Amino acid sequence: MENPLMYYLCLSTVDRRSRERFIESSAQIAALVDKFKIDGQDYRKYNTPYSKTNALSIPLTAYGKASAWNVISTLICRQFCANLIMKRLFPKLGLIPLFCILMYTFILPSLDETQNSFQTRNFSLSVSQHRNRFYEDSSRLSIYRGPSLIVTNIIANMPLTMLNIFIAGSITYWTTPFRIDGYWMERWIIFCSVLWGVYTFVEQFTIAIMCFVKSPFKASLT
Predict the structure, then answer these.
(1) Is 121 exposed, middle or buried (0-12, 13-18, 19+ CB in 10 A)?
(2) Got the DSSP string for 21-71?
(3) Is the CB of residue 202 less than 8 Å from the CB of residue 126?
(4) Is residue 60 part of a domain?
(5) Is 121 within 8 Å of 99 (Cβ atoms)?
(6) Using one digit for the tens of pLDDT, what is the confidence trace for 82-127?
(7) Quick check: is 31 in a domain?
């Protein structure tokens, strides 16, 4: 049995070997087009409707490359909105204060023997999505590079991390025997600022690890 595809391909091919063959093949193609217009009406309802707006759409590359300021502002807005998702908001905002409360409630006598890598394991669960998106945007689309990701990550996470660390720092400050005198406010601000600096360093260190370690679980063990 002849292949139907080859049969219709032969029917729709223009024969230019002679003038008579050319006229005959052109008429045959026109008749074939009319036949498909009539017989194909029953099958068009299964196709998606044709939209003229899609045919006239302009590709994004026609507008040129976005400026560095537009890229950075877009990344900041995207990461900040991603942090406001409920399943990410609790690890960002409430997990460390809860950890401090539990730590100073139950394991304060053995504090020197506890493990201090909690923040690295916490942040490794939330950075993997941004890392995968960064690989796609940088390698396939060439929109931005690594320094833009680091700067925008610090700026986008700054409000939540400062609130998070100052709450955890306040819990730590008031549950430990720090001096309470006329200069306690300055000591409290310096203490929380140092904690926030360490927190930010751990975030960037975790990002550096996650660039080479693909699995968040393996990065936590590292």
Answers:
(1) middle
(2) HHHHHHHHHHHHHHHHHHHTGGGGGGSPPP-HHHHTPPPGGGG-PPPHHHH
(3) no
(4) no
(5) no
(6) 777 766 676 677 677 777 777 666 665 554 444 444 444 455 555 5
(7) yes
Same domain, 183 and 158: yes
Could you identify the residue written with the tokens 């833009």?
A: 148
CA distance 207 to 146: 10
Alpha-carbon distance 113 to 115, whole Å?
7
73 and 45 in a single domain? The answer is: no
Tokens encoding 88 = 């990410």
Q: Are 103 and 11 members of one domain? A: no
Q: Quote the number of domains for the chain.
A: 2
- Residue found under tokens 């201090």: 116
In this structure, what token pair is assigned to residue 45?
Answer: 């309802």
Say how many residues make up the chain: 222
Q: What is the pTM of this model?
A: 0.49
**25 and 48 both lie in a single domain:** yes
78 and 19 in one domain?
A: no
* Model pLDDT for residues 156-190, shown as the tens digit of each residue: 878 888 888 888 888 878 777 666 677 778 888 88
List the domain range (segments joined by +) for residue 106: 68-221
What are the start-end ranges of the E strands in the chain? Answer: none
Integer CA distances (angstroms), 171 to 73, 116, 128, in order: 34, 17, 29
